[in-house]
């Protein structure tokens, strides 16, 4: 009997619509994940791209939400989400936008509210809420009289605002749990047990004693600008010598950002006067303008101004007009 190489003997059975993971987790037929891997990956990629764009284009979550909610309804519709993707120039099919909205719509009302927007389309820990006044959603100017008898609902209920961590008073939106399967047999890892007691939302560890001394890694160098998704521990914190012999800056809680941030002329004058630098107002103003010319944006920091004063002093020493020059008395 001659049969082709790919011939299969016996009766062919129709494959099951569910996989081994669906059987283990006892998923329902309307929630099986077999065959949806590519679709879920595309939805995750779209959400990740929207998170990056929102983080780089807006200063707070409310500003980003208003960009999506152009009609001022207090909720984001499917057409709003599609228009934002067009403005961001994201080549996304309309069917995939529906899948993204269905993923973000936790209460299944067909729209994305502010709480869902913060949880699924943003890094809510990295941006402030922008909710200084918990008023109604943004409406068009001149239409307030239409809502005098039937005022609209608030953008978010105050009950959904929680502290970021026990050590600060900054608020953020509560976390919406979007989990397909729960732990089998209520299993929990040791790390989850620690975080439930000590960590965000648990017991404050501010007064706890810290054991051990941190050290600096020599195999990795910390980058000047760290990416948002970079979770690598570079060990660029305080090291053994810095703890045993702290510098003068560390004793006064002065850090690198304090020395490098731009400052006005009044701030520079006050700082250098307090540390004992005696200069007349005209000389200090002339030095400040010269330091501003050395920066592309005209910024002057404490470090740049100090470096300029060192250069001026070096020039005076070489010219022989400074008391520290050779042949001159101090």
UniProtKB/TrEMBL annotation:
<dbReference type="Pfam" id="PF25325">
    <property type="entry name" value="EF-hand_EFHB_C"/>
</dbReference>
<dbReference type="InterPro" id="IPR002048">
    <property type="entry name" value="EF_hand_dom"/>
</dbReference>
<keyword id="KW-0282">Flagellum</keyword>
<feature type="domain" description="EF-hand">
    <location>
        <begin position="92"/>
        <end position="127"/>
    </location>
</feature>
<feature type="domain" description="EF-hand">
    <location>
        <begin position="56"/>
        <end position="91"/>
    </location>
</feature>
<dbReference type="Pfam" id="PF13499">
    <property type="entry name" value="EF-hand_7"/>
</dbReference>
<keyword id="KW-0206">Cytoskeleton</keyword>
<dbReference type="InterPro" id="IPR057428">
    <property type="entry name" value="EFHB_EF-hand_C"/>
</dbReference>
<keyword id="KW-0106">Calcium</keyword>
<keyword id="KW-0677">Repeat</keyword>
<protein>
    <recommendedName>
        <fullName>EF-hand domain-containing protein</fullName>
    </recommendedName>
</protein>
<dbReference type="InterPro" id="IPR040193">
    <property type="entry name" value="EFHC1/EFHC2/EFHB"/>
</dbReference>
<keyword id="KW-0969">Cilium</keyword>
<dbReference type="InterPro" id="IPR018247">
    <property type="entry name" value="EF_Hand_1_Ca_BS"/>
</dbReference>
<keyword id="KW-0966">Cell projection</keyword>
<dbReference type="GO" id="GO:0005509">
    <property type="term" value="F:calcium ion binding"/>
</dbReference>
<dbReference type="InterPro" id="IPR011992">
    <property type="entry name" value="EF-hand-dom_pair"/>
</dbReference>
<keyword id="KW-0963">Cytoplasm</keyword>
